Amino acid sequence: MSAFDASLLEWVYEFAQKNFMLVFAICMLLYRVYQAQQPFPETGGRVEAVHDDDELDAKLKKAKDNKQVAVVDFYATWCPPCKAAAPRYGAMSEEMPGALFLKVDVDKCKAAAQKHGITAMPTFHVFGADGEKFDSVRGADLAKVKKLVSFAVDFQNKKDAETEKDK
User: Fold this and answer.
1) Are strands 47-50 and 99-105 parallel, antiparallel or unpaired?
2) Out of 60, 72, 76, 82, which one is annotated catalytic?
3) CB pairs under 8 A, 24+ apart, for 54-59?
4) What SS3 state is found at 47?
5) In what order do the strands lie in the sheet with 47-50?
């Protein structure tokens, strides 16, 4: 190692010690840039992507007409919690065949996001079989989403059983 290399390393070391917060902020910025460049993971499962605002309305209407519970994941491709939740959301769709699973990119479907009051990502809305919003979950708490979907599906199954019983 040359004398120049050694003095440069000393300078960098001293600079990092004196300007720790600046070095930390630069490292965090670089990490954020790296994260943003990572591709959005495949959701998989039975999740249907929604590409525009009218398509979301049409799919929710179809779910209502079929008396099916619908779950909508409002996400953003740049959102780290959304990236982490995507594969688990896809797996959940496979475990719960009684519900329709949708995903909406809030940057592409801005009117739908505004219409549904989305202010944080991810946000999951659960719609009952009657088409009304049952409940929602802000954040990547998929255990809570799963409980809500199970409850909504069980509620609809009981309602259907009572209807058949009355006939």
Assistant:
1) parallel
2) 82
3) 56/102, 56/104, 56/109, 56/112, 57/112, 59/100, 59/102
4) strand
5) 47-50, 99-105, 69-75, 123-127, 133-138
Token match 């006939």: residue?
Answer: 167
Q: Rounded to an integer, what distance in angstroms lies between the CA atom of residue 75 and that of residue 160?
A: 32
* Active-site choice (47, 63, 79, 100): 79
Q: Where are the beta strands (DSSP E) in the chain?
A: 47-50, 69-75, 99-105, 123-127, 133-138
75, burial (CB in 10 Å: exposed 0-12, middle 13-18, buried 19+): buried
Residue type for position 71: V
Does the annotation mark 109 as catalytic? no
79 a catalytic residue = yes
- pTM of the predicted structure, to 2 decimals: 0.77
pLDDT in tens for each of the 167 residues of the chain? 677 788 888 888 898 899 999 999 998 998 888 877 777 778 889 999 999 999 999 999 999 999 999 999 999 998 989 999 999 999 999 999 989 999 999 999 999 999 999 999 999 999 999 999 999 999 999 999 999 999 998 888 888 888 777 76
Q: What is the pLDDT of residue 165?
A: 75
Q: Are the beta carbons of 103 and 89 closer than 8 angstroms?
A: yes
Torsion, Cα 14 18 23 24, to 10 degrees, reads 130
